[in-house]
Design a protein that fits this description.
Blueprint lengths: L16 H10 L1 H8 L6 H21 L2 H10 L2 H8 L3 H20 L1 H23 L6 H11 L1 H15 L27 H9 L2 H18 L4 H25 L2
Helix pairs in contact: 1-2, 2-11, 3-9, 4-6, 7-8, 8-11, 9-11, 10-12, 11-12
């Protein structure tokens, strides 16, 4: 008797960039599985550029970068003290210069996001590749980071909705624009360390971290989701404590 031939399981059809972006929110496993086929990342990067520019333009028109800059100075005792030591003319020039820089940096912030995600991908790739002997390439890891970061774009769009819904410009904080974390309800001048730490416990950031861990566990094959969660959240904890410490030291 001869055994029946084994029919291989059909491969999942390739996804378009639009499908991968949508599935990141509704069926993330499909997106990250497709990254094993193609580590393309231009789709989420384009979405990031668009949503970032929408957010910055909304801040520019509804709040104004002059007010954003003044708010940033008020939140920093050191900056406030420096401004008080200047003459009125010098203070005006200093605020105008800061406003110009803040506005230009904000409109080009998508470049910083790209570079930051490259750094995060390098750290995660090195950790999983050399410490855990996981599979997956650097560009697959980078694609995972880019797609997972789409969750943070939702926070920016939520802030845009709040601005156009009538949010008081005087209460707007560009660094923490939406009530998605405990820090939003705290004063930055009270305890800079506590404010920075509380701001890091953000719903959309947690969503991003979970998506990142899921994506890495899928592209690496050998890595369990629980292990990926520990590594991703562990690195985030290091980053949060470092930034909180620096913020408290230079407030």
């Amino acid at each position: 008797m001869t055994s029946a031939p084994v029919t291989p399981a059909p491969e999942a059809p390739a996804l378009s960039e639009a499908q991968r972006i949508i599935d990141t929110f509704v069926a993330p496993s499909k997106t990250f599985t497709d990254i094993r086929r193609s580590p393309a990342w231009w789709g989420p990067f384009l979405v990031t550029i668009i949503t970032t520019l929408i957010f910055v333009y909304s801040v520019d028109t509804k709040v104004g970068f002059r007010k954003v800059t003044e708010h940033q100075i008020e939140q920093s005792p050191r900056a406030t003290q420096q401004m008080e030591q200047l003459s009125r003319a010098d203070r005006e020039n200093a605020v105008a210069g800061r406003t110009k820089f803040t506005r230009g940096f904000s409109y080009g912030y998508w470049i910083f996001i790209l570079l930051w995600n490259l750094l995060i991908a390098a750290i995660l790739y090195g950790t999983f590749k050399f410490a855990l002997n996981a599979e997956g390439t650097f560009w697959q890891t980078f694609a995972v980071v880019m797609y997972a970061g789409l969750a943070l774009s939702v926070r920016g769009l939520l802030a845009v909705v709040m601005l156009f819904a009538g949010l008081d410009p005087d209460s707007f904080n560009m660094q923490n624009p939406a009530p998605s974390n405990p820090g939003y309800f705290l004063s930055p001048t009270g305890s800079p360390f506590l404010y920075s730490f509380a701001s890091s416990i953000d719903i959309f950031m947690i969503w991003t971290l979970v998506l990142t861990a899921l994506g890495i566990s899928i592209i690496s094959n050998k890595t369990k989701f629980s292990t990926a969660l520990i590594v991703v959240f562990g690195w985030y904890a290091v980053f949060v404590l470092t930034i909180a410490g620096i913020t408290a030291a230079f407030a």
